[in-house]
Amino acid sequence: MNALFRNRSGAATPSSRPADPAHEEETRERQEARDRTELAALREMVPPPAAPRLSSTRHAELEAHLMNEINDTAATSDAAKSTKSAKSRSAARRSPAFGWLTPGRSMSLGAAAAVVAATMTGLAVTGSSGQTAVAAPAPLKVESSRATVPLATVAKRAAALADSPGAAHRGTHRREWALGMWDDGKHKPKQMPVVETRARYNADGSGEAQDIKDGRVVHRKHLPAGSWEKFADFRNTPPTTVGGLDDYLAKESPDTRGSAYWTMDSVEALLREWTPGPAQTAAIDGLLAKRSGLRALGPVKDRAGRQGQAYGVDFKGTVRWTIILDEHTGRILGTELSSIKTDPKMQLKPGDVEQYNTYLD
Questions:
Q1: Alpha-carbon distance 64 to 201, whole Å?
Q2: How far is 149 from 298, CA to CA, in rounded Å?
Q3: Is the separation of the CB atoms in 221 and 93 below 8 Å?
Q4: At 130, which helix (H) or strand (E)?
Q5: Residue 273, φ and ψ in degrees, nearest 5
Q6: CA 89, CA 87: separation in Å to the nearest integer?
Q7: β-bridge pairing 319-325 and 332-339
C-alpha cells in the first residue's frame, strides 16, 4: 500500500550528477511502470461496474478521482502530519463522484479513500466543524402500533399534492452518516462523524455551502459562478412526471430502466444535489411505486425522529436500499443502505447500517 502514496508531484531530486539522456529515459520508463502498477492496484480497490451503487460512468469517474486524491495526498502528506484533524468531506469540498464513493457500500469497496484519510492523519476522524466519530446506529425499528401504508397509496397522495406551492431547488440540507470500511477482511469498520450540511445555488451556478453543528452554522464557503455546472451530474431541473423522471435518471444511469434497486440508487444520488418540490416528489414516489421489487417494510421513525413509512429493495441478497416517506404527503425523509448478509471482508453482519441520509428541508 505504501507505494500508492509516494511523492508524485514531479519535483526533481537534487543531484550534482550531469544530466544523462539514457539515464533519464530509463528513469522515466521505471516511473511509468510504477504508475501502471499503482493504477492497477487502485482499480482493484474500486468496485466493478456490476457491483452495487456504481454505474460504468461513475466507475470511470471514481478511478480518475482516486488518482487525483492520491496525487493531492502525496503533495500534502508531510504538512498534513502536523495537523490534528482530517480534511473536511463536506459537500462544499468534494465533487459528486467522491460523494458517491464516501457513503455506503461504494465507500466500503473503495478502500483507497480510507487509506487516503488514514495516511493524512493517522488520528481520530473528525469533520471540519469538529464533529467526532459516532458508533453505527441501530437498524430502523418497525413500529407495530402503527399501520403499514402501501407505497402506491403514498404515491397517490403525493400526486394529489403535486400542484402545491414550491419548486425544486439546487442544493440540499441533509444530515448524513457513513460507516468507514475496508474490503481486505483485516480492519474493523471505522466509526465516522455525523455531518450536517446545507448548500444552495443561484442561476449562475454560484452559491454557498454551510457546515452545521447543533443547529448552528459553523462554517461557510462561497461557491463561485459555474460551481453547479462543475460539480453536479443532474444539472437540469428534475422532471415532474413519472415518465419524464424515468428518462432523466436513465440518461445518467441506464441501469435504472426497470430496476427498483438501481432506481433507488439514482434517486439517492439525485437527492444529494436537488431538493425536490411537490411535483418532483410526486414523480419520484410514482416511479418507485411503478418498480417491482420495492416492498413495504412498515412504519418507522427516521434518524430525525419523524414518523414515516419505510420501503426497501435488496441487491442480490447482499445490501438493501431503504427509503422513508411521509405517509401523508410522500415527502422523502431519508434513505439508508444496510447489509443483509454476513460479509467477512467488510466485517459486517445482517442489519448493520452502512450509511444514512436524512433530508431536513
A1: 26
A2: 7
A3: yes
A4: none
A5: -115, -30
A6: 6
A7: antiparallel
DSSP lists the bridge partners of residue 176 as 195, 357
pLDDT digit string (tens) for 116-147?
333 333 333 344 445 667 778 999 999 999 99
CA distance 259 to 57: 17
The beta strand positions in 25-110, using DSSP E, are none
Q: What is the pLDDT confidence band of residue 62, given thresholds at 50, 70 and 90? A: very low
Residues 96 and 171: beta-carbon distance below 8 Å:
no
Place of cell 453505527: 136
Q: What is the mean pLDDT of residues 200-224?
A: 95
- What Å distances lie between residue 215 and 108, 196, 210, 307, CA to CA? 29, 9, 11, 21
How far out from the chain centre does Cα 93 lie? 13
Reported in sequence order, the residue ranges of the chain that DSSP labels E, i.e. its strands, are 133-134, 169-170, 173-178, 192-193, 195-201, 207-213, 216-223, 274-275, 295-301, 307-315, 319-325, 332-339, 353-359
Mean pLDDT of the chain: 75
pTM of the model: 0.69
Question: CA 94 to CA 36: how far, in whole Å?
Answer: 26
Residues 6+ apart with CB under 8 A from 159: 282, 285, 286, 330
